[in-house]
């Protein structure tokens, strides 16, 4: 005999699974300390950043109010040993980047430009004195950095065609030129500027202290449609005088610049994977609650088909990025490895977030639903740190032994 309580329990709605973008439980490949940090970052992004970030995204503004609490995460200099840096494996660095991008790719980009590009330039190409001077302050987020390579007319051709110049005068260098699309530039404390030495035509790196250097100015780039929280700037250098002590002592050719780009390029793979993760989880939650024809749209075959495709892209990218981080930790990472991951993951991200926007219908273009901004932000990830086509040419050269570059 069925009791009334049992009947009510049988009729009760079945609890739906919570959205999770880690279908293969890859986070379990981290050690306990790494998992604890990833969980700490996730909790921070969910409780502190997510409730406010859509407004900042819509307003083209950076949430400076978050900087004090962001510093407390202790993630400055992840992957770097010593100099007050957080250290740890590249797997951990990647998972943290993915968690940041899972809520907002702009916050991940802010972090990547500062901790990856700016700190990475000093860590890889700086002298011991420069590392001791700058990295501890940057690891504590007391000094924020940016990375000035791209120019108004020079993007993919940076290896051989920089128009920003450096001229040696005694114990100083005179820098002239412009840089464009430089994240953090409108407000940060120091810029890593790459310029062509007029004496030997080689690319060299310089640390420019923004707020105290005459001839250095920045104009914020307005009206962006992607990564709107990150403040990008156009830097102008007009007879900027830099002491020899601020020249990166190990940054003497584009090959040295490329060492930094190799590391940060594949971080874009993690960021685009995190964007897919956020888009998938928000889309799945929406389809579970959105009613149409008297039932959740998640019950429809065509909806489930797109959700499965989104998850497939996401999981493939997670597995690729995990293996790439392992190669980096083993000292086996090459330019072509990073290039393939950057190209593949950003291309799949475009596809994944487009399906998410489609499943939300009209709500997919409203920032408050936490899918539309991924749809826009991924367009920037697809292009920056080297275009899709340029990455494929790097891979093509590696696998054929023939360069197709001009």
UniProtKB/TrEMBL annotation:
Domain Acyl-CoA dehydrogenase/oxidase N-terminal: 32-142
Top-level taxonomic group: Bacteria
Cofactor requirement: FAD
Database matches in PROSITE patterns: ACYL_COA_DH_2
Acyl-CoA dehydrogenase/oxidase C-terminal domain segment(s): 258-399
Biological processes annotated in GO: fatty acid beta-oxidation
Keywords for this protein: FAD, Flavoprotein, Oxidoreductase
Record-annotated Acyl-CoA oxidase/dehydrogenase middle domain positions: 146-240
Alphabetized GO MF terms: acyl-CoA dehydrogenase activity; flavin adenine dinucleotide binding
InterPro entries: ACX4-like, Acyl-CoA_DH_CS, Acyl-CoA_Oxase/DH_mid-dom, Acyl-CoA_Oxase/DH_mid-dom_sf, AcylCo_DH-like_C, AcylCo_DH/oxidase_C, AcylCoA_DH/ox_N, AcylCoA_DH/ox_N_sf
Matches recorded under Pfam families: Acyl-CoA_dh_1 (PF00441), Acyl-CoA_dh_M (PF02770), Acyl-CoA_dh_N (PF02771)
SUPFAM superfamilies tied to this protein: Acyl-CoA dehydrogenase C-terminal domain-like (SSF47203), Acyl-CoA dehydrogenase NM domain-like (SSF56645)
Family of this protein: Belongs to the acyl-CoA dehydrogenase family.
Protein name in the entry: Acyl-CoA dehydrogenase
Organism: Bradyrhizobium uaiense
């Amino acid at each position: 005999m069925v009791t009334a309580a049992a009947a009510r329990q049988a009729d009760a709605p079945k609890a739906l699974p919570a959205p999770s973008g880690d279908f293969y439980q890859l986070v379990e490949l981290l050690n306990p300390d790494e998992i604890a940090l990833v969980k700490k970052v996730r909790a921070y992004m969910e409780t502190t950043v997510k409730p406010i970030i859509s407004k900042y995204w819509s307003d083209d503004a950076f949430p400076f109010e978050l900087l004090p609490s962001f510093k407390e995460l202790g993630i400055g200099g992840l992957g770097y040993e010593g100099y007050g840096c957080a250290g740890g494996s590249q797997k951990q660095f990647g998972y943290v980047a993915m968690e940041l991008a899972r809520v907002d790719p702009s916050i991940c980009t802010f972090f990547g430009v500062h901790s990856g590009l700016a700190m990475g330039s000093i860590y890889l190409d700086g002298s011991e004195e420069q590392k001791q001077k700058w990295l501890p302050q940057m690891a504590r987020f007391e000094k924020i950095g940016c990375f000035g390579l791209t120019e108004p007319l020079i993007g993919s051709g940076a290896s051989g065609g920089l128009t920003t110049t450096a001229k040696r005068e005694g114990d100083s260098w005179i820098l002239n030129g412009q840089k464009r699309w430089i994240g953090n530039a409108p407000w940060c404390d120091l810029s890593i500027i790459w310029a062509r030495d007029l004496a030997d035509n080689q690319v060299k790196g310089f640390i420019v202290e923004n707020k105290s250097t005459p001839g250095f100015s920045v104009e914020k780039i307005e009206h962006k449609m992607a990564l709107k929280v990150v403040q990008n700037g156009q830097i102008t250098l007009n007879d900027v005088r830099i002491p020899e002590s601020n020249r990166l002592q190990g940054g003497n050719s584009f090959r040295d610049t490329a060492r930094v780009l190799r590391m940060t390029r594949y971080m874009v793979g993690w960021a685009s994977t995190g964007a897919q993760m956020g888009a998938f989880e928000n889309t799945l939650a929406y389809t579970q609650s959105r009613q149409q024809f008297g039932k959740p749209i998640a019950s429809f075959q065509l909806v489930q088909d797109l959700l499965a495709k989104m998850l497939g892209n996401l999981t493939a990218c997670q597995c690729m990025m995990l293996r790439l981080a392992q190669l980096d930790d083993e000292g086996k990472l090459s330019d072509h490895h990073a290039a393939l991951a950057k190209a593949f993951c950003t291309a799949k991200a475009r596809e994944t977030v487009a399906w998410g926007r489609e499943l939300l219908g009209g709500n997919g273009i409203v920032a408050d639903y936490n899918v539309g901004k991924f749809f826009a932000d991924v367009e920037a990830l697809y292009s920056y740190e080297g275009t899709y086509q340029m990455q494929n040419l790097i891979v093509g050269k590696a696998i054929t032994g023939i360069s197709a570059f001009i």
